[in-house]
């Protein structure tokens, strides 16, 4: 049984459809990364899964009693507000000093408990946010571009920490990211979103598909290119799961729920 799933989820903002019939699921211990261009609905999808975004269609199912830890894309803190990292960890749900110390230690920032939140560097802040998300033993971690604004060493260190947490605790991870090395190194499955699910599959297989081109300056030399798709072709033989949904990444086609990623062939739909 999946821990959390979306089935045909659609979201509209005014007259614009931001998500169209998106289906996905996440199982225990799995790391799934969602990629896509700016404005593709990635953050909206996470909010829908968290239950804080109203749906215009479809449904989200969460296992009863599911514990979720969430790390937002950014956190704005009033610089005139005095708040230590330790105090922040007790918002909105109180925790003991021992719990706070364990969480900060787990995230490599044990010495920051008495530091003011506004005085933290970007990397320190993200680790404190992660510590807060881990406080109550979540079964799923949902992270919305958690390394945005960090330099490359900071990104690499943060994602190594995520991998260690998954290894040590078995927590499932749903991650929005633009960091292709993370997708390659850590993900079990990659979902490309552009208002709808364009494609999904194992990262090492998708990275070998020459038809996929990376945007945002990542280039094509060994990059996992999942950002633009021309699906009026057929892929060659694949040794793993790549599921292509529709002829392109526009919104002029429909597709059903995501296909089982246990299958070994490439799926291409006429739309």
Describe what is shown at a glance.
The protein is α/β, with parallel strands linked by helices and 271 residues long. The protein is built from seven helices and ten strands.
What does this structure look like?
This protein is of the alpha/beta class. It folds into two domains: 4-67 and 176-244, Rossmann fold (3-Layer(aba) Sandwich); 75-171, P-loop containing nucleotide triphosphate hydrolases (Rossmann fold, 3-Layer(aba) Sandwich). 24% of the residues lie in helices and 22% in strands. It contains seven helices and ten strands. The chain has helices at residues 42-50, 85-89, 97-106, 122-134, 152-169, 180-186, 203-206, and strands at residues 4-13, 16-26, 31-35, 57-62, 68-71, 140-144, 172-176, 189-193, 197-201, 242-244. The chain has a seven-stranded mixed beta sheet with strand order 5-6-7-3-8-9-10, sandwiched between helices. Strand 1 (4-13) and strand 2 (16-26) form a beta hairpin. The longest helix is centred in the middle third of the chain and has 18 residues, at 152-169. It is globular and about 50 Å long.
Strand order of the largest sheet: 5-6-7-3-8-9-10
Task: Return the domain count.
Answer: 2
Quick one: overall form? globular
CATH class of the largest domain: Alpha Beta
* Cα radius of gyration in angstroms: 19 Å
CATH superfamily of the largest domain, by name, is P-loop containing nucleotide triphosphate hydrolases
Largest pleated sheet: 7 strands, mixed
Using the coordinates shown, work out and report the CATH topology of the largest domain: Rossmann fold
**H and E string:** EEEHEEHHHEHEHEEHE
- Please identify the oligomeric state: single chain
List how many beta strands DSSP finds.
Answer: 10
CATH architecture of the largest domain: 3-Layer(aba) Sandwich
Mean pLDDT: 79
Beta-strand content bin: 15-25%
- End-to-end separation in angstroms reads 29 Å
Helical run tally: 7
Return residue spans where pLDDT drops below 50 for at least 5 consecutive residues.
209-239, 250-271
Q: Which secondary-structure class do the elements indicate?
A: alpha/beta
Q: What share of residues is helical?
A: 10-25%
């Amino acid at each position: 049984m999946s821990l959390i799933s979306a089935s045909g989820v659609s979201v509209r903002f005014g007259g614009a459809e931001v998500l169209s019939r998106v289906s996905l699921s996440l199982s225990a211990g799995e790391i799934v990364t969602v990629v896509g261009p700016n404005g593709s609905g990635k953050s909206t999808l996470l909010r829908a899964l968290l239950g804080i975004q109203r749906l215009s269609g479809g449904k989200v199912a969460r296992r009863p009693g599911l514990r979720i830890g969430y790390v937002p894309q950014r956190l704005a803190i009033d610089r005139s507000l005095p708040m230590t990292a330790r105090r922040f960890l007790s918002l909105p749900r109180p925790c003991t000093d021992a719990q706070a110390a364990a969480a900060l230690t787990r995230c490599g920032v044990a010495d920051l408990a008495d530091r003011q939140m506004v005085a933290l560097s970007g990397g320190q802040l993200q680790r404190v946010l992660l510590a807060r998300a881990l406080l109550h033993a979540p079964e799923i971690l949902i992270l919305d571009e958690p390394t945005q604004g960090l330099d490359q060493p900071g990104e690499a260190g943060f994602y190594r920490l995520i991998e260690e947490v998954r290894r040590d605790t078995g927590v499932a991870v749903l991650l929005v990211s633009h960091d292709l090395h993370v997708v390659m190194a850590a993900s079990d499955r990659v979902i490309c979103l552009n208002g709808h699910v364009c494609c999904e599959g194992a990262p090492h297989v998708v990275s070998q598909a020459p038809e996929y081109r990376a945007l945002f300056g990542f280039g094509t030399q060994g990059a996992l290119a999942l950002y633009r798709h021309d699906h009026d072709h057929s892929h060659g033989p694949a040794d793993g799961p790549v599921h292509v949904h529709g002829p392109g990444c526009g919104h002029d086609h429909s597709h059903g729920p995501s296909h089982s990623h246990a299958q070994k062939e490439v799926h291409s739909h006429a739309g």
